[in-house]
Amino acid sequence: MNIKKLVAFVSAIALISLTMSSHAFAKNADNHAGILGMKKGDAMVFPMYLAADGFKTNMVVINTDNSHAVVAKVVVRSQAFSTELRDFFIYLSPNDVWKGELCYANGNIVVRSEDASVWNPATGECATAANPFEYALAPVICEDLDSLMYGYVEVFEAAAMNWAAIRDTDLDHCVNIRNAYEDLTQVETVNCLTGYGEYVFPGDYAVFPATVIAGYAVNDKLTTARETFWGDFALNSITEVEAVLSKDNLVFPYYNNGRDISIAALTFPTKLTRVNSDCEVMQVRSPFFVQHGEFGSVSIGDELISDSILGIKYNYDAYDMNEKAISECQVSPCIKGKRLPWEVNLIDPANDLGVAFEEGWSRISFGTTTQGADLDQNDMSYTGAPVIGMVVHLTHNGMSVDQMAYDCGEVYLGEIDKTLLNCVYQGGCRVTEVTCPTCPVCPVCDADHLCLCETEAACEAAGGNWCDGVCQAEECNGSPAPTCGPDNLDLCTNQTACETAGGNWCDDDEDGVFGCQPEECNGGGGGLPSCGPDNLNLCTSETTCEAAGGYWCPDEVIDCQPAACGSGSSTTIGEKTVTCGTTCFGNWTNPAFVQECSDWQAANCQ
Question: Domain end: 365, 382, 417, which one?
Answer without folding.
Answer: 417
